[in-house]
Design brief:
Blueprint lengths: L4 H16 L3 E3 L6 E3 L4 H19 L7 H15 L9 E5 L6 E4 L3 E5 H4 L5 H16 L3 H6 L2 H6 L28 H17 L5 H16 L15 H10 L11 H7 L1 H5 L1 H13 L4 H14 L4 H13 L3 H14 L4 H13 L3 H14 L3 H13 L3 H11 L5 H17 L5 E8 L2 E8 L5 E12 L2 E12 L4 E9 L10 E8 L7
Parallel strand pairs: 3-5
Antiparallel strand pairs: 1-2, 4-5, 6-7, 7-10, 8-9, 8-11
Helix pairs in contact: 1-2, 3-5, 5-8, 5-9, 8-10, 9-10, 13-14, 14-15, 15-16, 15-17, 16-17, 17-18, 18-19, 19-20, 20-21
Length: 513
């Protein structure tokens, strides 16, 4: 489902409104009184709006074997059926190799491909999903977003505005999938996750073995994995707590090892291919020829994986083989037409080939799935070339919320257009008197040097109309200068409506697209 920014904005405002509202309510998950933040309906709507966006940010959905996703969803539904809070729980498999899982408000849960291959049985899967389910059911995200939700939602709700050095660079909006839960939240999720596991008929010892795996992964994996454990930091304390909880929720239920292995057969068989793809990505910068051999081998092992074809396209593009890269990205899109990054990368390859119409189509499709600074900036340039200043400004404004050089260029491009359309928003002018002469003061309130400033002064005093059109060649940001009007009148007050800033423009050449 494409990310619908227009539909999200009213919901964002509604959420902020509820956060500012006083009062208390009983949390169905905790049976404790707490400040009202969202009604259940608003919480669900918020999660539904964010869920497709978060899937895009996290790597897209795993599509090679749809049966894997159906199986995970069935296990999640079994655990959700015994939870303390009724929500429209939904479970998806994310096509990312890190051992991670996350939950959004309203019961939306994602588990990464990289974690599924670390698990051994269905009970361990149920333990992971149950843990995440508790985070959603007991609103553990609440305290994390309370301080930042107003500023984040007020900034249009666009998620994919991160460091823009990568054309497909994104960040997860409020970071709801990477919240740093406190020890109490993790302890509560571990405890109630085991409670749900036991009630669903699974062997609760799986909650212990999962924690053992997380501790082991944290200890032996490279530092690149550590950031993935920030939201659910493994610890010996959590492991000990789960072992102690076995006294209350004794083991002996269903493990489902054979069933799990059967449903995960494709993923487990393809594990070597994904390892080859990761090696290709790490090798590409220093030895693209070797990287190409690695990704070709991965593709030969699993030709249905769109990610492999996209990595192949990246390698080809880095070698300047843009036509071949377009074909590789096309193969990725054929296999997964709903992941934004493949369109961004193919659009860039089309641009390199001078195929502007095709590039624009791809970038527009990518932004319908998830807005990115690169795509928005380029689409702004295309709109401006077509003479559609309003659309250009909208795209530049979106891209300008990101960090980095592209974000700065987008902000300058937006201000350039907006200043020409409404110069009075950036250049202020007012009248004063100096030894009987009326003086015009011009102030540049923008962050950019401004030139070719034209200000009109028109006043009528005692039936006498005076009109001047004054010009200023240049004014640096944050500075002012005075101009003599040549009008001498003995008056005690000056009307602000007598002055109109008619024209101004940013100094320097227009940014390139």
């Amino acid at each position: 489902m494409p990310f619908d920014q227009a539909r999200f904005l009213p919901l964002a405002a509604l959420i902020v409104g509820f956060m500012l509202a006083p009062g208390c309510a009983v949390d169905p998950g905790s049976a404790q009184r707490e400040p009202i933040l969202l009604t259940t309906e608003d919480e669900i709507a918020f999660g539904e709006e964010r869920f497709p966006q978060q899937q895009q940010v996290s790597g897209g959905l795993y599509t090679v074997d749809p049966a894997v996703s159906r199986y995970v969803a069935s296990v999640g539904a079994r655990v959700a059926a015994v939870s303390d809070r009724a929500l429209p729980y939904e479970f998806v498999v994310v096509n990312d190799g890190t051992p991670n899982a996350w939950a959004l408000p309203g019961g939306k849960v994602g588990i990464h491909r990289g974690l599924l291959v670390e698990l051994e049985n269905e009970a361990e899967l149920a333990a992971v999903l149950g843990h995440e389910l508790v985070h959603a059911a007991r609103k553990h995200w609440r305290d994390q977003i309370q301080g930042g939700v107003q500023s984040e939602l007020g900034d249009s709700g666009v998620a994919a505005l991160a460091d823009d050095s990568n054309p497909a660079a994104v960040q997860p909006g409020l970071g709801l999938a990477n919240l740093n839960y406190g020890r109490n939240a993790e302890r509560e999720s571990d405890y109630y996750g085991m409670k749900y596991l036991h009630a669903a008929g699974y062997d609760t010892a799986a909650a212990v073995t999962v924690q053992e795996k997380f501790v082991d992964l944290s200890d032996r994996r490279q530092s690149r994995w550590q950031r993935r454990f920030r939201s659910h930091p493994p610890s010996l304390e959590r492991l000990a707590n789960n072992r102690a909880a076995l006294n209350e929720f004794p083991p002996g239920g269903e493990l489902g090892t054979a069933r799990y292995q059967a449903h995960m057969a494709t993923l487990l068989r393809d594990r070597d291919a994904y390892d080859l793809a990761e090696q290709a990505q790490r090798t590409a910068r220093n030895d693209p020829a070797a990287a190409a051999r690695l990704i070709d081998k991965a593709i030969s092992q699993q030709p249905r994986e769109a990610l492999f074809h996209s990595i192949g396209g990246d390698i080809l593009a880095s070698l300047g083989h843009h036509a071949d890269a377009v074909r590789a990205y096309g193969k990725a899109i054929e296999r997964d037409p709903d992941y934004f990054a493949y369109y961004v990368r193919r659009g860039l390859a089309h641009e390199r080939l001078g195929e502007q119409r095709l590039a624009r189509e791809d970038l527009a499709r990518s932004n319908s799935l998830l807005p990115t600074p690169f795509a928005s900036y380029r689409l702004g340039g295309y709109a401006l070339a077509d003479g559609d200043r309003a659309e250009a400004k909208r795209q530049f404004q979106v891209a300008g919320r990101s960090r980095g050089g592209l974000g700065a260029a987008a902000r300058a491009a937006y201000v350039r257009l907006d200043l020409e359309d409404a110069p009075w928003k950036y250049v202020r002018a007012g009248l004063g008197t100096d030894t009987g002469q009326i003086v015009l003061r011009i102030v540049n309130t923008s962050d950019y040097p401004v030139a070719d400033i034209v200000v009109r002064v028109e006043m009528e005093i005692d039936g006498i109309t005076s009109y001047r059109q004054l010009r200023m060649k240049h004014l640096d940001p944050g500075t002012y200068d005075d101009l003599e009007t040549g009008i001498y009148r003995g008056i005690t007050s000056l009307g602000p409506d007598w002055v109109t800033v008619a024209r101004a423009q940013i100094v320097g050449a227009a940014p390139g697209w």
